[in-house]
Write the structure tokens for this entry.
Amino acid sequence: MPALASLCRTARPTLRRLGLGLGPAAFPRQQQQQQQQRRDMAALAGVADVEIDSDGVFKYILVKLSRRDGPEHKDIVRGTKSAEYHNHIFEKLTSEMEKLELDCKCLGGGKIDHNSKQKKIRVFGLSTGFGKADHSISVEKLKTVYKDYEITWSDETK
């Protein structure tokens, strides 16, 4: 089936020049898949990459978001002082993402020390329930939002 789709894509310009008009209507399944991919990407793009508290030391999680039954995904960072445990952050996020028909998989957690006055963020530690997040991925996500900050990470627990 993929070979047929490839052949059709290749033949389409030639058939158009010959006036045979093999347009998108001739490929409804392909068109539906493309529309679904655009919707999936839009749903993921509508979710902020980073949402953390403005100051203090608090728990955070790194989460992989994906569209149900779709290959598109992205990683996001969530952290807050109000969470006693990492799973409190995950439970809140999961209920929000279910409304958008997005699935969540927690990739791990840790802590964030955010000092907005000094424009510094330190990522460290681990989650007892979810394990240690890949802090290097979390830091790259944080750098996209906090561009003028010094952001570091370590495997230290404190």
Observations:
- The chain has a mean pLDDT of 86.
- Residues 3 and 109 are 43 Å apart (CA to CA).
- The helical segments are 2-17, 28-45, 86-99, 135-145.
- The two ends are 54 Å apart (CA to CA).
